[in-house]
Design brief:
Blueprint lengths: L1 H7 L2 H20 L4 H12 L7 H15 L1
Keywords: Membrane, Transmembrane, Transmembrane helix
Amino acid sequence: MDQWKAQRQGEADHQEIFIYVLLIRQLQINMYMNCFYILFQLCILCSLFIICSSSKLIQTCVLIEKHKN
């Protein structure tokens, strides 16, 4: 149902989400439960497809990674 809603919100939004699903799957191969994966799972659980845009996801992840180091 959530995927259907995302598709109805526009092809651009859906494609952006799909690209990040692929990116996150690639990252999972290298690092288990990394920052991107955790944030993306939260977005899916909350169904915040528009609020949790790719740029915000990246910015948040970069901040978290900086604090970890």
